[in-house]
Design goal:
Layout lengths: L14 H13 L6 H10 L11 H11 L28 E6 L27 H8 L4 H14 L6 E7 L8 H20 L4 H10 L22 H8 L1 H15 L14 H11 L5 E9 L6 H9 L4 E7 L3 H6 L6 H13 L3 E6 L8 H13 L7 E4 L4 E2 L4 H6 L8 H13 L6 E5 L8 E3 L6 H11 L7 H4 L12 E8 L3 E9 L5 E10 L13 E9 L19 H15 L4 E4 L6 H5 L4 E2 L4 E4 L14
Parallel strand pairs: 1-2, 2-3, 3-4, 4-5, 5-6, 6-8, 13-14
Antiparallel strand pairs: 7-9, 10-11, 11-12, 12-13, 14-16, 15-16
Helix pairs in contact: 1-3, 5-6, 6-10, 14-16, 16-17
Length: about 625
């Protein structure tokens, strides 16, 4: 794919047909249902039997005709009526998920898929994996293509949360990490300027025979009888490329060769230059997420991730039971998870844990006890959580235990009952980001194949007169709110390093419009970074509602209503009251300017602000 030609559309040529169609859609009191939309498309087809207008066609046409012939003026908040999946950007930012290339993994987990076409634990049939493979795992191509898709379907591309998945990030070479992220920024900047360098990248990849449009490998691994491990197979398939990559950095650094656009090498100085450009770019990184294992989180690693611009770490807890971890060949114990969470929290990172019920050696009863430990034990208490019940994949070593009758997947009713119990025990400060991994049913040998299990759980809870209190279940989304509709509440809890405050703007129904995470480390707790010594740390500020462009403001929308500033000021007051005289924030690259305008100055890896006795507060800031 050289360009996304399918979205080319001459709006002017369709003016007479498309404007009446847009009027019906945009004048509707809400978003049309799928059935209503289909009926409308049949009423207003393309001329000469050319089919129906796509959603991308409608978005493109409205951008051209807004304010003409009775259409409303252009308004980002109306775009949700045209979008295919408006929920993607209802959390306030636009997620951009990329996969790293296939690479050896330090883990030997028996439940993990062994698809050698993919980085460890991912399957080629997963939607994100298909996009990555289609673009030869190149970060520039993945980023540009995804941004174009979002734009064509009417989503904002101003505020981007970069989510890098694939294997164990910390196990990839440092030069690859720097290059991968630098190239993401290059694509953000080019897209924001209307520059498309994809043909140049594709030509360079083709010159190295890395862009064929075909699967990387037809080699498969059978989990029940593994002749070779994932690492052995990957190293065999990609031996030539890995050998070339190993010597690349040395040759370039020594000046022995000229660098190609797709060479997996960049310097820290080049990345830092790209970061500075992104501070005021049209497409800004407002969050950068990597995923790794607890046993690969060290002092050096958290500093490196922070230098890369990281703000959140997805980390595989999987279980908090040493026996279960050992049976599943996880390769680390619970103590490693404790150390990792402590390091991440002390350096301000958001902690996005992965937890897996139904692992080999566990049971529904043991899983529930494990889940309770997640939030009862101060050493854990993640900010976000993915619940991934173990699925049986043919390439996973778990096939052996399954065929021997030593492991079975939970029944539908067992899993439903367990997840209902887990949802009930999830505190308000945690966001359940995903329940059930997006694995195609054709890849699952046995077990649950229902992908909307969260909805089933919520319906069952509603039937029982209960509801989930996690953040995602309470997001304000498209609801119209004003300051008078909201009150500021504070929830505090202990962590492994001190006290945490979760400040949230909520409605009377407890719908959440914005929140802030404030960490108050114990004075005796030593930090590995001098600039954080004695600091309270803002780990996250998030305002919910439809993602709007930078600088946009719309009455009734939570975004750009000043909630973030009010949350920051309240956090500053709490920190000062507790004896702190400096406040740090783990800002993303694209939010640095936002914090500068709120009194923070740039440090080495964080932004900091001196704290003084606050003036009398407005009544709107009072805690309820």
């Amino acid at each position: 794919m050289l360009k996304d030609r399918k979205y080319d559309f001459d709006a002017e040529a369709h003016r007479e047909r498309v404007i009446p169609l847009l009027k019906v859609i945009l004048s509707a009191p809400g978003r049309l249902s799928s059935r209503e939309h289909q009926q409308l498309m049949r009423r207003y087809p393309k001329p000469a039997g050319a089919g129906f207008y796509s959603l991308a066609n409608l978005v493109d046409a409205w951008r051209v005709f807004a304010g003409q012939d009775g259409l409303p003026d252009y308004d980002e908040t109306l775009l949700y009526k045209l979008r295919r999946k408006p929920v993607r950007t209802m959390s306030g930012v636009t997620p951009l998920t990329l996969l790293t290339k296939p690479f050896p993994c330090p883990g030997t987990c028996i439940f993990c898929p062994n698809d050698v076409r993919m980085p460890k634990s991912y399957l080629a049939d997963e939607p994100g994996a298909q996009r990555a493979e289609k673009n030869a795992f190149d970060p520039y191509l993945q980023t540009w293509m995804r941004l174009q898709t979002y734009h064509n379907l009417g989503h904002s591309t101003d505020k981007i949360e970069i989510i890098i998945l694939g294997g164990t990030w910390s196990f990839y070479p440092e030069t690859y990490q720097i290059w991968f992220i630098k190239r993401i920024f290059d694509a953000l900047h080019d897209f924001g300027k209307g520059i498309d360098r994809r043909d140049e990248v594709i030509a360079a990849l083709r010159a190295r025979s890395q862009f064929t449009g075909q699967p990387v490998s037809n080699v498969t691994i059978q989990g029940a009888a593994m002749a070779a491990s994932y690492n052995q197979t990957v190293q065999s398939i990609y031996a030539a490329e890995m050998h070339r990559s190993r010597g690349l950095a040395e040759d370039i650094a020594a000046g022995n060769r000229e660098r190609n656009i797709v060479d997996e090498y960049a310097t820290w100085a080049e990345l830092e230059a790209a970061q500075r450009e992104n501070e005021n770019a049209a497409c800004r990184s407002v969050g950068l997420v990597i995923e790794t294992r607890p046993d690969h989180i060290s002092e050096e690693e958290v500093i490196r991730v922070r230098r890369l611009g990281g703000t959140k770490v997805q980390i595989g807890f999987q279980s908090l039971n040493d026996r279960v971890l050992a049976l599943n060949k996880r390769g680390h114990d619970v103590a490693a998870t404790r150390r990792a969470v402590r390091l991440l929290r002390r350096t301000g990172f958001k902690i996005h844990a992965h937890w897996m019920p139904n692992l080999y050696g566990s049971s529904p009863k043991a899983d529930l006890a494990d889940y309770e430990k997640l939030f009862d034990d101060p050493d854990f208490r993640p900010d976000e959580l993915k619940i991934y019940p173990c699925s049986l994949i043919e390439s996973a070593e778990l096939m052996g235990q399954y065929q021997a009758g030593e492991w079975r997947p939970y029944s539908h009713d067992e899993l439903l009952e367990l997840l209902v119990a887990c949802f009930k025990r999830t505190p308000e400060y945690c966001r359940l980001t995903r329940v059930i991994r997006d694995i195609p049913g054709t890849d699952i040998v046995d077990g649950n194949k229902v992908t909307n299990f969260r909805q089933l759980v919520e319906r069952e809870m509603e039937r029982r007169g209960e509801q989930c209190a996690d953040i995602r279940a309470r997001e304000i989304r498209l609801k119209q709110v004003t300051s008078e509709d909201l009150r500021l509440e504070s929830l505090s809890y202990r962590s492994g390093i001190g006290e945490e405050f979760f400040l949230q703007f909520i409605t009377d129904e407890r719908d959440i419009a914005g929140f802030l995470r404030l960490s108050l480390p114990d004075p005796a707790d030593e930090t590995l970074l001098a600039e954080l010594q004695g600091c309270a740390v803002i780990r996250e500020v998030h305002v919910y509602g439809l993602a709007l462009g930078i600088g946009s403001a719309h009455e009734g929308r939570a975004q750009h209503a000043g909630l973030g500033s009010r949350l920051i000021e309240r956090a500053a007051e709490i920190a000062f009251e507790r004896g702190y005289r400096r406040l740090a924030v783990i800002s993303a690259i694209g939010t640095r300017e936002y914090y500068r305008k709120r009194g923070f100055v740039d440090g080495a890896l964080y932004q900091l602000r001196d704290l003084f006795k606050p003036a009398a507060r407005d009544s709107a800031h009072k805690l309820e």
